[in-house]
């Protein structure tokens, strides 16, 4: 199942067509994309009855598929390759920070380049479907509604200011593009081992697989829910693989006019154009 948003309305993607969820459910779910996660079991049962879309899919109209989660968790140094390129030891616990929900954006929204140190970080993003509170790792996947492609765009200057403001440096407007849709794990070839990567102006910058994760998706659900409950619709940015711009020699960062393409196997890709700030 693929859940998307078109002009802010929740839709089900069925091949090359879409079904408006609020219309199809007579108002039981939608139009707010967040409403489908509030009663995930009932929604999935309803969605299974829809087999044909009512309108063609127009990718240009896709907006952020999870626009207003109550909590957005993000994990640093969660790929072995990225920890190694950063010269950091393998973490023993997830290095957790937050991206504020105001940073989330759509799959084709622009990225504002505010200075000369704006970096890319492609990520697999998990969407919580059922409240997770002290969940064991073995049950972690049962609480995940789906997965999507994300970018943890990072203003490195702000990130490392005043002792390290990770959350602010990663939460500028538009610095959390998601999409193109949320895909349920049963649709994926191997939910624990997916290829992901990104390119800038056609040059591949990151390319890895999620089996390089230090803390897997179910492990993250367990670790985070041991501290606080995860709510339906919450997001977990699971970390980025090796290949970020700041560690390159010389360092390379996003520039106005750059095109950033990010992908995850079995989900799709998002494309974000970088623009200057007037």
TrEMBL record:
Residues 72-273 form the Fumarylacetoacetase-like C-terminal domain. This is Fumarylacetoacetate hydrolase family protein. InterPro entries: FAH (IPR051121), Fumarylacetoacetase-like_C (IPR011234), Fumarylacetoacetase_C_sf (IPR036663). GO terms for molecular function: hydrolase activity. It comes from the Bacteria. The keyword Ribosomal protein does not apply. Keywords: Hydrolase, Metal-binding. Belongs to the FAH family. The keyword Hydrolase applies.
């Amino acid at each position: 199942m693929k859940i998307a948003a078109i002009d802010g309305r929740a839709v089900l993607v069925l091949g090359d067509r879409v079904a408006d969820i609020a219309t199809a459910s007579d108002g039981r779910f939608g139009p707010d994309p967040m409403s489908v996660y509030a009663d995930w079991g009932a929604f999935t049962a309803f969605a299974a009855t829809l087999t044909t879309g009512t309108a063609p899919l127009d990718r240009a109209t896709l907006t952020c598929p999870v626009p207003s989660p109550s909590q957005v968790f993000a994990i640093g140094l969660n790929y072995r390759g990225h920890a190694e390129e950063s010269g950091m030891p393998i973490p023993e616990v997830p290095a957790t920070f937050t991206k504020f929900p105001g940073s989330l954006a759509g799959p084709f929204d622009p990225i504002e380049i505010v200075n000369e140190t704006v970096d890319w970080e492609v990520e697999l993003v998990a969407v919580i479907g059922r409240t997770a509170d002290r969940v064991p790792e073995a049950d972690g996947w049962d609480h995940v509604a789906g997965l999507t492609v994300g970018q943890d765009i990072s203003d490195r200057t702000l990130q490392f200011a005043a002792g390290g403001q990770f959350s602010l440096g990663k939460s500028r407007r538009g610095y959390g593009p998601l999409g193109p849709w949320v895909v349920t794990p049963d649709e994926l070839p191997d939910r624990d081992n997916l290829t992901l990567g990104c390119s800038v102006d056609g040059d591949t910058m990151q390319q890895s697989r999620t089996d390089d994760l230090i803390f897997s998706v179910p492990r993250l659900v367990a670790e985070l829910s041991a501290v606080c409950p995860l709510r339906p619709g919450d997001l977990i940015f699971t970390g980025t693989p090796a290949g970020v711009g700041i560690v390159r020699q010389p360092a390379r960062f996003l520039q106005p006019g750059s095109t950033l393409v990010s992908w995850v196997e079995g989900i799709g890709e998002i494309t974000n154009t970088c623009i200057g700030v007037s």
